[in-house]
Amino acid sequence: MIAQDAFPVDPWQVRETRLDLDLLGSAESVFALSNGHIGFRGNLDEGEPHGLPGTYLNSFYEERPLPYAEAGYGYPEVGQTVVNVTDGKIVRLFVDDEPFDVRYGTLLAHERVLDLRAGTLTRTAEWVSPAGKRIRVRSTRLVSFVQRAVAAVEYVVEAVDAGVRLTLQSELVANQAMPRTADDPRVAAVLESPLVCVEHDTTRLEGSSGATLVHRTRVSGLQMAAGMENHVHAPGRVDVETQDAEDWARTTVVCALEAGQELRLTKYLAYGWSALRSRPALRDQVAGALAGARFTGFEGLLREQREYLAEFWDAADVHVEGDAEVQQAVRFALFHVLQAGARAEQRGIPAKGLTGPGYDGHIFWDTEAYVLPVLTYTAPRAAADALRWRARTVDDARQRARELGLSGAAFPWRTIRGQESSGYWPAGTAAFHVNADIAAAVERYRVATGSLELETDGGLVVLVETARLWMSLGHHDAQGRWHVAGVTGPDEYTAVVVDNVFTNLGAAQNLLAAARACVRQPDLARSLGVTLEEQATWRDAGGAVAVPYDEDLRVHQQCEGFTRRPEWDFAANPHYPLLLHSPYFDLYRKQVVKQADLQMALFWFPDAFSAQDKARVVDYYEPRTVRDSSLSAAVQAITAAEVGHLELAHDYLYEAATVDLRDLHHNTGDGLHMASLAGTWLALVHGLGGMRDNGGTLRFDPHLPEGLTRLRFTIRWHEVKLSVDITPEEVTYAARDHGSSLTLLHAGQEVTVRSGEPVTLPVAPVHPLLPRPAQPPGRAPVHRDH
Amino acid sequence: MIAQDAFPVDPWQVRETRLDLDLLGSAESVFALSNGHIGFRGNLDEGEPHGLPGTYLNSFYEERPLPYAEAGYGYPEVGQTVVNVTDGKIVRLFVDDEPFDVRYGTLLAHERVLDLRAGTLTRTAEWVSPAGKRIRVRSTRLVSFVQRAVAAVEYVVEAVDAGVRLTLQSELVANQAMPRTADDPRVAAVLESPLVCVEHDTTRLEGSSGATLVHRTRVSGLQMAAGMENHVHAPGRVDVETQDAEDWARTTVVCALEAGQELRLTKYLAYGWSALRSRPALRDQVAGALAGARFTGFEGLLREQREYLAEFWDAADVHVEGDAEVQQAVRFALFHVLQAGARAEQRGIPAKGLTGPGYDGHIFWDTEAYVLPVLTYTAPRAAADALRWRARTVDDARQRARELGLSGAAFPWRTIRGQESSGYWPAGTAAFHVNADIAAAVERYRVATGSLELETDGGLVVLVETARLWMSLGHHDAQGRWHVAGVTGPDEYTAVVVDNVFTNLGAAQNLLAAARACVRQPDLARSLGVTLEEQATWRDAGGAVAVPYDEDLRVHQQCEGFTRRPEWDFAANPHYPLLLHSPYFDLYRKQVVKQADLQMALFWFPDAFSAQDKARVVDYYEPRTVRDSSLSAAVQAITAAEVGHLELAHDYLYEAATVDLRDLHHNTGDGLHMASLAGTWLALVHGLGGMRDNGGTLRFDPHLPEGLTRLRFTIRWHEVKLSVDITPEEVTYAARDHGSSLTLLHAGQEVTVRSGEPVTLPVAPVHPLLPRPAQPPGRAPVHRDH
């Protein structure tokens, strides 16, 4: 857990006031900078010490063998793993003849600040070398939102109280030695030195010195280029020299400073990669990006960055009063969600964004089910781009469906490039709900933006091919009910089941949405071979979907038979996460839930359940849900709020919000949990704000828990920026764009909001139908006291 | 498929009349010799060409890593693989200066005969060397049933029509180069050269020359010794010389023969291995065994072998009239089943015996469910020994149960030494029925032999610890029915289910048998901590076991919900075995059955089903059972016979009988299918003979299909040899031991049979309740026309 005293709560910053070497890894993730194309972990400028060095390019991966003790038909043989690419962040410093290394000498002060409005990571350090020379270092790092291929570092050293000779080494380093992460020696071998040098060059322009390194991956054959350009300002004589080699390039700066004088290095970085383009094209792309950065200048890059973010925050900010930690956390979350998706531009958004190598850098359903719902209402273009990426991979998904004996397209459970990379099918291939989640994201985009642009550009093919998949996965029984057998829902402690409710309702929605979309897009539908008869089968199946219910217990079953399974013995299994201490066979057969599953269905398909149903589901499943997944708390916050347990919703919200800031899962060092970060927003907006838009009608039913005095957020809805300002007693809806208006339901009551005419209404009373539920022993969320 | 014309049908032999190099591998398995301790594949004397060289010692294995693309708790990390040990079979021959190699020169004649009464593999070859020299070779090979550590080869070369110089090389060869079988380079590396030399010595005794090689495995650290002693007889001058090195020893014999003269080599071989004993002890053990062999002489070994087999056949032979292939096959089967178990002596009996490296040389439930039922009634001491091996591994099984969060003992799905080595848990760990199968074998031994010897020596601990396992696996529902959730039955196309009928009835029988055994053995039970209360819980659960039944379709469900699953599309999936063409996810969720499962329950638990139930089960499941496992046909023969489909029973019997002789599964080259071989006997005795002894009463209800004119078999029952002689019209029961008598049921009627007073009774009429069922398209067994 990240010590709170080193990270004081601040509404627009994440500030680290001292350096704790044990927390380096998680701080590197928290302080990661990215624009969705380039990702820099928050490594120290000098490279060491580190938790894990990390520089990533979206979708730049290496292949590795997937081994099986007993292989089976359809098991993917090739995995994909994100590559730590050429590191351009590094600026090493020597004070006289001693390296600046925080582990030696005396670190008088060290502070790092991630500024959520500036989009920069700044660092200040005051250090006395072992020989007694005192210096101050200030660095500012950014990965540009505006210039997609560009990052930059400004590094300033001041001689504090005596003259020193300073040597700076500004570097590009490829094939950094990595801490070993895989047990399998073959895998480790592949990833140990994944980059093969293609070209290395020194460049020298008037007033700057730099280099370019071009590499390709050994197996996947992708090519990348990294370039740097160094500008140096210092009083007196300065020697600047650049050398390059296969796996490194180094600009060395030497100067002598008097006390009070400064050496300033401005380092522009540019990255490019391609599976198709030639070496010269990549090299030139990097040179061009560097030229653009130089033209803009460091101050210009800072200004652009701030302007980009100001526009984002204007339409996306969430203001919270009464819980300062949640206030900070939701902005931190929105910032990182934006970083993950902003400039991905038809590449996927991985579960860790570009903040770390966790989950091999793979994209999961997290993107469509957690991240895109946030981006759809705050940065819709990024959401559409991520979905266009899915549409671009439809041929891989079609091929996978064929391999599995299915129709349509089966999108991968986990992937970088588009091919299934899951090595354990019961929790991979069988989790077909990912297809419904993708389809739902396509449909959500249309509903929220009112735009058909995505539907005609990739969206329809996704809807149609996933509908076809469902038709081949499902079957009708003798009574005409439509079932889906042999699949795994969100709860990874219950696998390969019949009629998982979340999956079934998702499939039905997918089928019905596809049918409606084909009516809207008859020509496009025809070009995909969709007949009217096929659409009719979709409507038939979608309208007849089975939703298992236990008549004796009067509660829905997460899947057929779930409530008849043996109960989990919580007392005998006190160690979490359970999957590290119990075999799947035992988890699968018992009533123990890893993460919100039926509760996810309550949230996604609110109209499929009565208020009584929802209360019963929360009551039954809460004591059986262990939250061993970071995806769970946000959804539990939403359903707790929906059934009137507002304090519990607040507790879950807090948990979702602090998964990374407090390192609750002890793996923030591998990268941030994008879904949980996004979940913070979902918990606030859908949970406390009670927002739903199923069926195309925007609905709110906000309630604040004890202690929260205000929640204000803005969403984009059909080109309108709607702000919702909630206090314990009333809520004000305002359409912020001139001349705009929209109609919504407030607590079931229709309201039209026109720009310049905010509408204030009283919050509806809360009447929970059942008492606050218990959680499994030791798994209640931390209670937010006031 | 093995060409029938090269293998003419013979009641007491398997004879190969010409050498087909494409069939070498399967012939090596068919012609394998073993005594259950040493196994020799039927490799040619000169070692090459070969399908797969193979020399095995029961339970001598190497460890290898089990890799996982995504590992999970409780997955075994270490696998066990049978090792091809030092090969002592090799006798190379040079004719003048040319090696005798059947691929060169002209092979005028080549015949091999496996003699089922002699227990030998003999070979005769007539060959003209590329230089035109004609020789005859006769070799006779045996692995002694009587002298457990001993094998021997007699090798005779005759110069046919001209003088030749002959050079013989009689060898021991360790670490033979093997065809690569594993894709995983790490695994291949481990198994490429598994033996490390510990000692190599030449021995020279009066009149003989030989050598000993001692090796140990690299990882598992087992030690083995192989010794040879060569005796040479030839006219005129003979030079004999022995050399030894780390991985080989060679006795070279050189002589010159005139036309018509013979060179005769007698080679005694001895093997020993141990995990505990010292190098000198092993070396001496081998020397001692060689001394015993020399003392007995080759003729003596042949005589002993014949006597041993005569005694076996006297009590075990099955005589079939009307189907010569089945006649041959059942004797072939009994011979190999005997070879697999005869002298295993508290080691396991692998699924392939010691005939090949298939399934890594692992032991599965095949042993207890197929092989031991045959041995129990024909060679009961071997059955008891195999079960004592299980009892000896109970501590490993207890530890595995702890690992899985269970009580009692969880015996491994696959293993050599006793530890679970399964790398795919849904078809490994989850197949808990193996525990009920082992318990059933213990109980069967007591019922059939009337002896409590095994029960007090390991049997009770097996019954008690498996009963405890079931109590921790099962649970009661609100109505008091006892269920078992999350397990896999015999059908590997349906996994991780609730209430698999075979498993449930097996568990119930296990619980009840354990409770009764504890009443018989109160002191022993107390020493295992069994209380009267614990026994009561066993009886309660065992008496309340759930057996799912579909009221609408009026048929039992193989497991809960089975008959409600989607149907398999046989037309769309014409390629078998299905598991090579379809993913588990699709197989698991549909009504497609790999192998007899519910039909196995009909056979094992005949009293749990009415005649109507049985007819319905066969009718419903036959069209859904694809027989992708060699374990299936025998059981389907038995149930077909039971419900009156005698021709179908005959067809299935024929399939079970010829799985290896006709290489029906295209993998006989990896080793023989012991379970299917044993199944031939089961199909004849339990199927056509209608034998059951559930509840301790021996019952018969024999019927012969059209075409079979006689079936006569002998079983041992309570120390009595009972022969049953069946014709289409009547059956004669005879107690063959002087002064003995026993009571049995014939077609439900009680009969007492006294020695010297055979009882002849009419066969009961057959009335099938339903028509002959169909099988999946293309999967009907070959019909036995008459």
TrEMBL record, chains A, B:
Gene3D superfamilies, per the entry: 1.50.10.10, Glycoside hydrolase, family 65, N-terminal domain (2.70.98.40), Maltose phosphorylase, domain 3 (2.60.420.10)
Keywords: Glycosidase, Hydrolase
Protein name (database record): Trehalose/maltose hydrolase-like predicted phosphorylase
Pro residues composition bias: residue spans: 768-779
Glycoside hydrolase family 65 N-terminal domain segment(s): 16-274
Binding positions (substrate): 365-366, 594-595
Similarity field: Belongs to the glycosyl hydrolase 65 family.
Annotated region (Disordered), positions in chain: 766-786
Highest taxon above the source species: Bacteria
One example of a Gene Ontology biological process annotation: carbohydrate metabolic process
PANTHER family, per the entry: GLYCOSYL HYDROLASE-RELATED, GLYCOSYL TRANSFERASE
Ranges for domain Glycoside hydrolase family 65 central catalytic: 331-681
GO molecular function terms attached to this record: carbohydrate binding; glycosyltransferase activity; hydrolase activity, hydrolyzing O-glycosyl compounds
Domain Glycoside hydrolase family 65 C-terminal: 691-753
Active site: residue positions: 492 (proton donor)
